[in-house]
Design brief:
The protein has helices at about 25-35, 45-70, 75-95. It has about 100 residues and is an all-alpha fold. Helix 1 (about 25-35) packs across helix 2 (about 45-70).
Length: about 100
C-alpha cells in the first residue's frame, strides 16, 4: 500500500500580488541578496525574510520595554518577590544545588 501526500492549504501561506514603490537602492539590494547569498529562489522570499526579521526585532524590543517597565513597578516587584518566596522550597527540592 502506498500513501499519497496531500498538500494542506494554509491561508497564511497564500501569496497575494502587491505592488510597492521601492527605491532603486532597495531593489538592487534585494536582487543582490537573492543572487549572492542564495537565500531562496526568489526576491519575494528575501523580502518576506526581511519583513519577518523586522517584525521579530520590533516585537522583542517591545517585550523588553514592557519587562523593563514592570521591573520598575512596585506592585509587580512585590508580586514577583511573593511568588519567589512561595516557591523557594519547591525549587530547592527539584533544582540541583
Amino acid at each position: 500500500m502506498t500513501r499519497r501526500s496531500t498538500p494542506i492549504y494554509h491561508p497564511e501561506m497564500a501569496k497575494v500580488k502587491r505592488t510597492y514603490n521601492l527605491s532603486e537602492r532597495t531593489i538592487r539590494t534585494v536582487r543582490d541578496i537573492s543572487e549572492r547569498y542564495g537565500l531562496d529562489r526568489s526576491q519575494d522570499a528575501v523580502v518576506e525574510l526581511a519583513v519577518e526579521d523586522l517584525e521579530r526585532r520590533l516585537r522583542h524590543a517591545e517585550e523588553a520595554r514592557v519587562w523593563a517597565a514592570a521591573a520598575e513597578d512596585p506592585d509587580f516587584r512585590r508580586e514577583a518577590e511573593d511568588l519567589e518566596a512561595a516557591y523557594r522550597s519547591a525549587d530547592a527540592q527539584t533544582w540541583p544545588a
